[in-house]
């Protein structure tokens, strides 16, 4: 297990390097002008001398590999640089926002896994029954629906039509303090939408896994021994049926991140999504590179976690073989 | 209400807001407690809150003060200065004496050194200030003792006093950091009526009354600027009571008409929409074409149809409310005149109805920034009006990245407008020395009479001479239109009717954050 983690860590280094290099290259090739992005609306009234001076001050004309190397060496020394578009140190941007993104993702993920498992087991119990058909069709429907569409629908329904939950923000607009109650009520819609967007994968995998397990010999044997139905279902079928879900947990991380991006935008959630979008359109190299590194690391960790869990729970898998 | 009761109410309001805002958002009309806390929805937020990088340079910052400020009629009045400046040396030296007893919100006193530091840092080429060129006239600035600041100019510059609304920063804080990246960008310390308590970028800025403020204590104790880019979302949140007020486009503002407890404020503005007619293009460079377009456009129809009546026809860059507006240049929509001008200049109708001259079709491209609905509507209306006179305008949308390199050849639906002095907006728009310089003089307009008038208006101190110069300029622009000015746009704000004495100023192109009925929120009186 330690060996697997170690090997992955060794592998992660080059991947992260390649990804950040790619980000710098793509950003440099983008048509966006960092000087205009920096100046904002003021650029539309600025003379050429001002724009040239900003260009020189910001040092944006250097080749991207030099900027990448400068960024990389500084980052390894613990200095992530200064975000030109948010006018804040990158560490501060991430520090202020990551916690809210992490909260959103964690809650959504937990809800999706739990609810997905419950619905999946419910559907797998009697294949072809009404609950099964209802759950399966709902899952396929949600799988096809774009996240932002679900988000807008949720805003329309819960915030505008029923006025049950706030439509956006971390707290009420007039509120000065971030209180637990405020954040909880504001978290419900975005986390709910994000969870719902991840739900179909878990539901369908659990349904399949548990359904298959129910037809296998050990379960049939357990049934024949006269064990109670819920013992069979939860103790035997679910345990082996959950194995594919473990892999899924890792592979869903990238989608969770992109989903969070859209959800945060719709709900004005002050996470790192807005910062990511701004960083990309403003060619804000330091911020963009840091955020991409973070996202890549999250994906790599997700995969490692899935593999480790799989190795722990499935006796047929040897971690040393992976 | 006594001061103590106000304070008591403020505390109660603060507690009520933090505990029960969920169940009772916004409060009810006439509620004395809720009137002390104001939540306003705006479309965008500043990039930075540091005046050294350009924040608040046109005045109306709630966190900072300049040497001078403007009243509702845009007249200059003393702020950090005790009086208007003494102008000597033929308009080359401006001397300000500072008001006594002014403190920054951290309790430190304001001195002349702070003012000098502010201006020197803005003028420093290493500071990433986008508006540095506005202070081009300044040769030097120095402190004379603790309470006197002396500016020496390179040339007599009449509107200089109007530039000194630039906010002053505390040297004892700012000098310790890099102006481009320091914490002053997000944690400002100033002398203004309010201090920033929280800034969640992209979501909101929260302010509370500054305990060290030199002016009268504001009645509005806390206010919040919620940043909501989408017009519809802003209107919805205003309707739900989450916001007390918001800036809205005309069609959405109209939906609040007759709504009890809500009032609409229409601010007239310098914010014009105009079509640039580049001199570098063989068709738009022809004076006959420009004059014909000027006569062919139906400005009143644009105001009625595109702006829902919230605006005025623009007969030049200055709005009709400006004291420098040259009365008599107003002209009606006159399609017959447009045709006469084109006929006389030899532009004859071709087979497809589009006029031709020396084998060249009267056709050009008009670009507008994509996503801007108001500009798109103006561009389409312009093309349709031009077509009636036999000129073929192809309307295209693009991002500024695409538009910028094409500005010398293609027409652009531009929007601009500065307050304070005619020099501020007109010089960069029209002077031939700035042709094609960044976004200045986008049409590459060159007219010796206009140049001369701009120079006179800039250098002479005599009010009649300035007025005559700007009158000449506006009439010259009618004769040789380098731009087709279409409309001046009113900025609309809808607010809960809980305060007395709200006013609006004549506003620049930018609006919503610094200007709007909240330009003087520190003076608002809650309704009894």
Automatic annotation (TrEMBL), chain B:
Disulfide bond found in the keyword field: no
CDD domains named in the record:
PBP2_NikA_DppA_OppA_like_19 (cd08518)
Stretches that traverse the bilayer? none
Q: Which UniProt keywords apply?
A: Signal, Transport
Q: Name one GO biological process term.
A: peptide transport
**Main location per UniProt?**
membrane
In Swiss-Prot or TrEMBL terms, this protein is called Protein XP55
């Amino acid at each position: 297990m330690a060996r697997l983690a170690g090997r992955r860590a060794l592998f992660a280094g080059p991947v992260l390097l390649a990804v950040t290099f790619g980000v710098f290259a793509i950003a440099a090739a983008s048509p966006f002008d960092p000087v205009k992005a920096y100046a904002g609306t003021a650029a539309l009234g600025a003379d050429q001398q001002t724009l040239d001076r900003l260009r020189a001050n910001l040092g944006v004309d250097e080749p991207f590999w030099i900027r990448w190397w400068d960024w990389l060496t500084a980052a390894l020394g613990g200095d992530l640089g200064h975000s030109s578009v948010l006018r804040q140190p990158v560490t501060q941007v991430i520090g202020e926002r990551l916690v809210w993104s992490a909260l959103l993702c964690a809650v959504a993920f937990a809800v999706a896994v739990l609810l997905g498992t419950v619905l999946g087991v419910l559907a797998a119990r009697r294949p072809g029954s009404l609950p099964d058909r209802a759950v399966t069709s709902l899952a396929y429907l949600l799988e096809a629906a774009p996240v932002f569409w679900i988000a807008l629908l949720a805003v329309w329904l819960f915030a505008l039509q029923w006025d049950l939950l706030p439509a956006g923000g971390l707290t009420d607009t007039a509120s000065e303090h971030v209180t637990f109650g405020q954040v909880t009520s504001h978290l419900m819609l975005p986390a709910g939408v994000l969870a719902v967007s991840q739900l179909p994968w878990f539901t369908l995998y659990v349904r399949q896994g548990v359904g298959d397990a129910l037809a296998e010999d050990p379960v049939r044997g357990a049934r024949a021994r006269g064990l109670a139905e819920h013992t069979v279902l939860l103790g035997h079928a679910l345990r082996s049926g959950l194995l594919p879900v473990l892999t899924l947990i890792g592979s869903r991380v990238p989608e969770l991140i992109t989903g969070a991006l859209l959800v945060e935008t719709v709900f004005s959630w002050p996470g790192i999504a807005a910062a990511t979008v701004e960083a990309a359109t403003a060619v804000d190299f330091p911020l963009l590179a840091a955020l991409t590194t973070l996202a890549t690391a999250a994906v790599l960790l997700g995969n490692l976690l899935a593999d480790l869990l799989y190795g722990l729970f499935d006796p047929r898998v040897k971690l040393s073989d992976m | 209400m006594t001061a103590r009761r106000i304070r008591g109410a403020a505390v109660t309001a603060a507690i009520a807001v933090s505990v029960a805002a969920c169940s009772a958002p916004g409060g009810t009309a006439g509620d004395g407690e809720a009137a002390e806390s104001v939540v306003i929805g705006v479309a965008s937020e500043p990039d930075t809150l540091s005046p050294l990088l350009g924040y608040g340079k046109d005045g109306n910052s709630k966190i900072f003060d300049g040497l001078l400020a403007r009243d509702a009629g845009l007249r200059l009045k003393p702020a950090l200065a005790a009086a208007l400046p003494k102008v000597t040396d033929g308009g080359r030296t401006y001397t300000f004496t500072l008001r006594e007893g002014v403190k920054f919100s951290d309790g430190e006193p304001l001195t002349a050194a702070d003012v000098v530091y502010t201006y020197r840092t803005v003028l420093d080429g290493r500071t990433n200030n986008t508006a540095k060129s506005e202070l081009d006239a300044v040769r030097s600035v120095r402190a004379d003792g603790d309470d006197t600041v002396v500016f020496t100019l390179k040339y007599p510059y009449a509107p200089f006093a109007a530039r000194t609304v630039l906010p002053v920063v505390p040297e004892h804080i700012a000098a310790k950091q890099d102006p481009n990246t320091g914490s002053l960008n997000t944690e400002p310390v100033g002398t203004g009526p309010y201090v920033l308590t929280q800034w969640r970028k992209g979501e909101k800025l929260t302010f509370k009354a500054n305990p060290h403020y030199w002016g009268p204590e504001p009645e509005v104790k806390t206010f919040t600027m919620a940043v909501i880019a989408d017009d519809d979302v802003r209107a919805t949140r205003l309707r739900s009571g989450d916001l007390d007020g918001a800036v809205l486009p005309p069609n959405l503002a109209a939906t609040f008409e007759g709504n009890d407890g809500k009032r609409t404020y229409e601010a007239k503005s310098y914010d014009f929409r105009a079509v640039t007619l580049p001199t570098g293009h063989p068709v738009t460079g022809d004076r006959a074409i420009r004059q014909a377009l000027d006569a062919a456009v139906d400005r009143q129809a644009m105001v009625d149809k595109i702006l829902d009546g919230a605006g005025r026809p623009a007969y030049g860059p200055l709005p009709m409310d400006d004291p420098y507006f040259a009365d008599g240049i107003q002209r009606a929509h006159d399609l017959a005149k447009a045709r006469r001008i084109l006929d006389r200049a030899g532009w004859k109708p071709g087979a497809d109805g589009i006029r031709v001259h020396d084998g060249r079709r009267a056709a050009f491209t008009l670009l507008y920034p994509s996503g801007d609905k108001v500009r798109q509507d103006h561009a389409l209306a312009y093309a349709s009006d031009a077509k009636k006179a036999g000129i073929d305008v192809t309307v295209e949308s693009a991002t500024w990245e695409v538009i910028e390199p094409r500005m010398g050849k293609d027409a652009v639906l531009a929007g601009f407008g500065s307050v304070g002095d005619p020099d501020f907006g007109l010089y960069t728009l029209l002077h031939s020395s700035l042709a094609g310089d960044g976004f200045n003089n986008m049409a590459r307009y060159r007219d010796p009479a206009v140049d001369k008038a701009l120079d006179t208006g800039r250098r002479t101190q005599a009010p009649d001479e300035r007025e005559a110069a700007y009158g000449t300029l506006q009439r010259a622009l009618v004769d040789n239109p380098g731009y087709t000015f279409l409309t001046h746009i009113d900025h609309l704000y809808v607010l809960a009717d809980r305060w007395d004495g709200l006013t609006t100023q004549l506003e620049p192109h930018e609006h919503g954050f610094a200007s709007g009925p909240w330009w003087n929120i520190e003076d608002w009186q809650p309704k009894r």
